[in-house]
Fold this protein.
Amino acid sequence: MPSLWPNAVLEYIAGNNVTSSEPTSNIADICSTIRSGTKGWGTDEDELIHALGNLSPIDRYRVARHYETVHEVNLVKLMKKECGNGSFGKALQLLACPIEEAEAAVLTHAVEGMGTDELLVYTTLCGRSKEEVTAIRKAYLDLNDEGLSAKLEGELSGDLKRLIMMILDNGDEYAEEEYDPEGVHTEERVEQDAMILEKAGVDRAGTDEDALFSVLFKSPPEHLKQVNYKYVDRTGYSITKSLEDELSGHAKNAAIHLVNMKLKPIDTAVQLIEKSMKGMGTKEYHLTAAILRYQSLLHEILPVYEDKYVERLEDRIKSELSGDFEKLIVRMIDYKPKI
């Protein structure tokens, strides 16, 4: 499926020279603003918010590298030192590093301490391109003493563990295929995959999770949409309804998230952002991670959010948050990519 990261980021990770379509900020000036906001006694949080709040993913690379080269200080460590480990400080730490390191840091946070935050794990890894998963795995290993697969194998269990391990295997067996309606993803293949999904779960004694997950992983979005139509014809209900019936707990939620990221990514991102603010108290780290993850889609997310909830996302955030953290998240959603 398409990457959530701009192509310029993937090129940068691959070590290629990057000519980004994104408007490039004055990196030296941004670094000077960060330096001004952190030198001497006290911290100027407003300067940090202005400098880091709505950088493009590729400019976050450039700022992080340039700042450490010029000032010989790691920017993430500086944000932690200056702003602590509260919601505001953690958000700045995620903004102070390249995107794959930020997503690896989210996964590190998800498995820290007692218990595992399964929601952060599966929303970070499900519905991602092969290139993204490879980069996140490498960044996680660079940040921690063990690999991501080894860590999550010990943290997860059951069908969720099976699903996540299949993602992290990242080999050709489960890799998403390139859409080819003429040679591969024909009407015959649509019928075949719909039948596999039906046999794997619906009206059967038990669920064949491997067969189920394999079809979901390998199907490109265009093909999965056709499979879903055929599946409805065969069974009377959608793939996601089947997953609700056949799976349970976090595995069910993860599999549905995977399907929805292929079939309706904008609606899925909108619902996840709202979920982080729903109920008693906002899950501030979840909100930060979601805004960061879907940054390149924000120009599509904002109008859909407003249509669905009859409220601007900015106003919703202001009603839930306060102080420097509120100002930072509002600046993050003000990001405007060059379309």
In short: The chain has a mean pLDDT of 91. The longest helix spans residues 57-71. DSSP finds 21 helices and no strands in the chain.
